[in-house]
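Entry 12.
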Amino acid sequence: MEQQLLLQIANEFGTPTYVYDVELIEKQYDKLINAFGNHEVKLHYALKALNNINILKVLKQQGAGLDAVSNEEIQLGLRAGFTPDQILFTPNCVSFEEIQEAVEVGVHINIDNLSILEKFGQVYGSSKACCVRLNPHIMAGGNSNISVGHIDSKFGISIHQVKHIERIVKHYGIRVTGLHMHTGSDIIDGDVFLRGAQLLYEAATYFPDLEFMDFGSGFKVAYKEGDIVTNIERVGQQISDSFTEFCSSYGRKLELWFEPGKFLVSEAGKFLVKVNVVKQTTSTVFAGVNSGQNHLIRPMFYNAYHHIENISNPSGEPKLYSVVGNICESDTFGYDRMISEIHVGDILAMHNAGAYGFTMSNQYNARFRPAEVLVNDGKAHLIRKRETFEDLVRNEIELEGF
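Predicted 3D structure (tokens):
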């Protein structure tokens, strides 16, 4: 998106505001699909990354399915026009009642707990199919909070418990139609996917009714110049080759699934904020903006890097700033960044803000969540209004007598 368009959006819709580019989302989708050559691959978008109905519709038009982690996300998908068979439900630490709700809707069920699998068999027997999520015991990912396939992770059933899974499946006649694995996010080493794939191939020998295998996602995108990213083309070719060989030995062709989230929407998003103050202390020059970790928590939560650009003064002399928010605790978007000279009132754009930005936003300090804008064919459309005070207190119940 051009800086001039972003400035127009800030002027028309105010700040803080998330801005998403349809063209970039479609480009990332095509890039991932094409990485697997002639091998058909099904992408189930992980809508936890960004769940605005308009984003979901864009991806539906591209041919994506959905990966949902809650019944509420399932409902968001249905509301956007997805059919139940296009949705994979991959919950964690939920009650069996939640599983039953999803079964009633008719989505694919992904189970990552032996006790839940056994309960599933007791209730449904062979009448309902499910997928099983395995934990491959592989440490991968850009931060410990997003590494989910290691031995101490709460996610998945240990790869070493496959025999136990088999006993439960045989006892209750459960139809296991899919195997699933997800090791983490921001994975640079493509061999991680191949190691995990090999483990799934070996586990598949215990399950004769498979229809698909889901290798999760975790493909890394660039957050700053020179970042090492996942070589999608190389990974796609290697997995395609290994999967073709596996299907041949398994005896029939299975579907190959992935569930990208960040890869599809991260780079398509910009977060626009306005500078409230420029404050110089004895050691630092702070640029204080009209937002905070309540709107973009990734820098504080994951130590994530987001490139920050002064689009009001792009050709100004670069100076050193720490960009901070207006929340009442340490609240930093970026330490010691070289940014074109900043003045009060300037608009700053934070890059790679499409994933886990708005969906992780909150109302801390009684601040309103920001607006969202979608850019399509060079035109900006408001797709979520900025919250108001009425939104803040909507569900509050005031008792009489206090």
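Annotation: Confidence is low (pLDDT under 50) at residues 139-150. The chain has two domains: 22-265, 269-386.
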